[in-house]
Amino acid sequence: MRASRLEGKDLNIAIGLRQVWLGIGLVCAAAMASAACPPAGMNQAILEALKKVDWSIADDARRQGLALEMLDCLASSDPALRDELGFEALSHWMRARQLAPATLQSIRTALLPQLRPDAVDAAGFRQPFAALTLAEVSRVDRLQPFLSDAERAELLRIATAYVAAVRDYRGFDAKEGWRHGVAHGADLLLQLSLNPALDGEQLKTILAAIASQVMPPGEHFYVYGEGDRLMTPVFYIGRRGTIGAEEWSAWFAALSARRLKTDAATQASLAAKHNLSQFLLQLYASLKEGGTPEMQARMLPGVVAALKTLD
Predict the structure, then answer these.
(1) Residue 87 to residue 63: CA distance in whole angstroms
(2) CB 251, CB 283: distance < 8 Å
(3) What is the pLDDT of residues 9-64, one digit of tens each?
(4) DSSP readout, 37-104?
(5) Dist CA 18 CA 8 (whole Å)
(6) 10 Å Cβ neighbour count for 211?
(7) In 68, 203, 217, 272, which residue has its Cα 20 to 30 A from 99's Cα atom?
(8) In whole angstroms, how far apart are CA 172 and each of 32, 64, 115, 183?
(9) What kind and span of H or E run contains 172?
(10) What is the pTM of this model?
(11) Residues 180, 183, 188, 189: what is their CA dihedral angle, to the nearest 10 degrees?
(12) How far apart are CA 34 and CA 43, in angstroms?
């Protein structure tokens, strides 16, 4: 416990800290038979107190157990429980390297089935936040590998299938918070694209999934930064240097060819033009500002040619 963080900062935290540890102990003592958020023996106030001390839990076993219990919060309809507490706690522990490989494996095996096409997610929160949490799992594996090649390939297969299958394009709601399935799926693909264990063919699988969502079917206009999130793994795949200039030009040409072209303006055609433009302009700016000369030589001709089709 870091007393200096508490001293003079928030007396309520100091007074209630003993209750926090007792609450965590109850969580780890009782096995949960059904989904619950907050976890058994806890409430939102206890979780918020833990957040104020940077999710610090000295007892390793208690931390591992609570991490698994917090998975239920990822499907909560309450944005504070889902995003600010549930996801943030899991992300913090993973980025601080405070979750054991066995715990990470349990998180992976619990969340992967939630991304399958037949998974039930009527409210639309469970799948996007499962994808976002798996992005954190993938980040840990990238920095400290713990997945086998087969497990990593399974994660890639399910992640790309999920991104291609997203049809819930809701982003932010003032009362319900974020869903953001496309963006969260793109974040998962980003972490996979950065992993040196993936080969060129696996990277092309990621590109195919991204291409399927640059211009979603129907009349949906991306307005929550989806183009930027989809662009980012493409940029970093380009940095890997496994795809040559001709292949990149062909990829961008195929992407622009998918846009519905018509002399008459329709919602669908305007949406496709808007979404493709958003994606390409973000990538163009990233390449010009942050791309190496080799990346620019390989990718910019295809990006510029695709942009010209939007005139």
Answers:
(1) 14
(2) no
(3) 443 433 344 444 444 444 343 333 345 899 999 999 999 999 999 999 999 999 99
(4) SSPTT--HHHHHHHHHTTT--S-HHHHHHHHHHGGGGGG-S-HIIIIIIIIHHHHHHHHTT-S-HHHH
(5) 17
(6) 18
(7) 203
(8) 31, 31, 20, 12
(9) strand 172-173
(10) 0.88
(11) 150
(12) 16
Residue with tokens 């919602």: 267
Structural element, H or E, at residue 20: helix 11-29
Write the CB contacts of 282 (distance below 8 Å, at least 6 apart in sequence): 227, 228, 231
Residues whose CB falls within 8 Å of the CB of residue 213, separated by 6 or more in sequence, listed in order: 163, 164, 166, 182, 185, 186, 226, 230
The pair of three-digit structure tokens given for residue 150, joined into one six-digit string: 């087969």
Residue found by looking up tokens 């087969």 in the block:
150
Which residue in the block uniquely carries the two structure tokens 């590998």? 145
Using alpha carbons, select from 151, 229, 221, 228 the residue that is nearest to residue 189: 229
Cβ atoms within 10 Å of 200's Cβ, excluding its own: 12
What's residue 29's pLDDT? 39
Is residue 156 within 8 Å of 202, Cβ to Cβ? yes
Q: Is the dihedral of CA 135, 140, 145, 146 positive or negative?
A: negative
Q: Which residue has the tokens 């991306």?
A: 222
Cα 103 vs. chain centroid, distance in angstroms?
Answer: 19
The pLDDT confidence band at residue 262, using thresholds 50, 70 and 90, is low
Question: How many whole angstroms separate alpha carbon 67 and alpha carbon 91?
Answer: 10
Q: CA nearest 160: which of 186, 194, 183, 141?
A: 186
